[in-house]
Amino acid sequence: MPRRTIPDRAVEFLREWSVPRQMAGQDHRREAAESAMARHGRPRTEKADSVGTSICPYCAVGCAQLIYAKDRQPIAVEGDPSSPINQGTLCPKGAATMGLMTSPMRLDRVLHRAPHATEWREVSLDWAMDRIAHLTKQTRDESFVGDAPDGTRLNHTMAIGSLGGATLDNEENYLIKKLFTAGLGMVFVENQARV
Questions:
Q1: Is the pTM of this model over 0.85?
Q2: Contacts 24+ apart (CB under 8 A), 110-115
Q3: Which of 117, 184, 132 minimizes the C-alpha distance to 155?
Q4: Strands 153-164, 186-191: pairing kind
């Protein structure tokens, strides 16, 4: 391929730049705004063989998303225009969901590091959930205070706390609060959205 000279590159730049085309009378909303790349480009969603729906994972607004996939692999994420919440729009974080899903650094398995260990080991989700339940019950049983010294009924533990994430909506936070305070006796129940 021959090397382009500076005058050739300048001519190409002026041909692609919209201002000279607008000055020549082209419509700034149509042909003057269109570059060669835009004329020949195709939407990335055109290659999808399936479209699924999802909810943005970043906050409690609950913006609906369309996940376009080819061969069961995501190729694009867009806002869902049928959603009354976001009406097809996404904030910058929501628009970056594709990077979250396809990042090679994304964890897609459960890792556990035992106390005093230096290495992580892969475990099953069932094992991890059983372990969390066992340690929660053990800690609650060991630290549960039924009555204060003066006889006041307490029924609480101050050894366990909960910090919820900003993706939890009001209804989920309500249920978490009821379960953790009434069911387990937790005193410290907070949400990351308030921190």
A1: no
A2: none
A3: 184
A4: parallel
120: tokens are 């992580």
- The pLDDT > 90 percentage for the chain reads 62
pLDDT in tens, 29-59: 777 777 777 777 888 899 999 999 999 988 8
Which whole number is the average pLDDT over 65-73? 96
Structure tokens at 170: 């009001």
Counting Cβ atoms within 10 Å, is residue 68 exposed (0-12), middle (13-18) or buried (19+)? Answer: buried
pLDDT for position 126: 97
**Domain covering 44-102 in this structure, CATH number:** 2.20.25.90
- Beta-carbon contacts of 12 under 8 Å, excluding residues fewer than 6 positions away, are 4
143, 157 contact by CB (below 8 A): yes
Q: Domain limits of the chain?
A: 6-40, 44-102, 107-139, 144-195
